[in-house]
Design brief:
- With about 200 residues, the chain is of the alpha+beta class.
- It has one domain (about 10-200): Sandwich (Jelly Rolls), CATH 2.60.120.590.
- About 15% of the residues lie in helices and about 30% in strands.
- It is built from two helices and twelve strands; from the N terminus they run E-H-E-E-E-H-E-E-E-E-E-E-E-E.
- It has helices at about 20-30, 80-95, and strands spanning about 10, 50, 55-60, 65, 105-110, 115-120, 130-135, 140-145, 155-160, 165, 175, 190-200.
- The strands form three sheets. It has a six-stranded antiparallel sheet with strand order 1-10-7-12-5-2, covered by helices on one side. Strands 6-11-8-9 form a four-stranded antiparallel sheet, with no helix packed on it. It has a two-stranded antiparallel sheet with strand order 3-4.
- Strand 3 (about 55-60) and strand 4 (about 65) form a beta hairpin.
- About 35% of the residues are buried.
- The chain binds N-(carboxycarbonyl)-S-(naphthalen-2-ylmethyl)-L-cysteine (MD3) and fe (iii) ion.
- N-(carboxycarbonyl)-S-(naphthalen-2-ylmethyl)-L-cysteine (MD3) binds near residues 108, 133, 144 and 175.
- N-(carboxycarbonyl)-S-(naphthalen-2-ylmethyl)-L-cysteine binds near residues 164, 166 and 177.
Length: about 200
């Protein structure tokens, strides 16, 4: 049996066009390269990251926050590509969240064996705003738990082009990504990419 998704979480299978998004990601990375950010505790994140939009998510020895400039280049983050903003707004509207205007797109790049531990996205100002996530490249097993860290997570398989919207009661759920299995995507190579659209400010 296919377990029901948590309330407020909407999965739009193959909603995005990976071939259209790939050159846009390459253009962003030419301006603000993928980098491995560090954490306050001295660790290094398993996924390489970059951002687009008015603000970008940053982690370093001072902690997590949004910054209007890329600390690596000292320049503003690349502008939010029109195709990104339209995809995020359309997907959010389809999921029941009209008027979504993200000011941050975090681009995560996972090599084989990289994952992301269970966490909540809590650095944004308004939790009434949804989050839109676009999966590209190698498939992933996405884990979604509850509002409590100890709630047992359920696994959902995500493939290239799948779009997830988290709003309302799903906005503060714990979630993570299992280590990516070895493979080769025809477009993205041995990587999984994820676009996470947020209204940060
Ligand atoms: C569920 N990234 O960058 S996106 C992250 O695939 C992050 O790269 C994962 O979690 C990735 O913070 C998952 C999906 C996601 C994003 C926000 C959520 C799931 C969420 C907020 C609430 C519940
Ligand atoms: Fe997250």
């Amino acid at each position: 049996p296919i377990p029901a998704l948590p309330a407020g979480m909407v999965l739009l299978r193959r909603r995005a066009d990976p071939a259209a998004l790939w050159p846009v990601i390459q253009g962003l990375a030419a301006q603000s390269p993928f980098r491995f950010m560090t954490t306050k505790r001295g660790g290094t994140m398993a996924a390489a990251m970059t951002s687009a939009g008015a603000c970008g998510w940053v982690s370093d020895a001072r902690g997590y926050r949004y910054e209007s400039r890329d600390p690596l280049t000292g320049q503003p983050w690349p502008a939010m590509p029109k195709a990104f903003a339209a995809l995020a707004a359309d997907a959010a509207a389809e999921a029941g969240f009209p008027g979504f205007a993200p000011d941050a797109c975090l681009v995560n790049r996972y090599a084989v064996r990289a994952g992301m531990g269970l966490h909540r996205d809590g650095d944004e100002r308004d939790f009434d705003q949804p989050i839109v996530s676009v999966s590209l490249g190698l498939p992933a097993s996405f884990l979604v738990g509850g509002l409590d860290k100890d709630d047992k997570p359920q696994a959902i398989g995500l493939e290239s082009g799948d779009v997830l919207v988290f709003g309302g009661p799903a906005r503060l759920l714990y979630h993570g990504i299992r280590p990516v299995k070895a493979g080769e995507d025809p477009l993205f190579g041995p990587f999984r990419y994820n676009l996470t659209f947020r209204r940060a400010r």
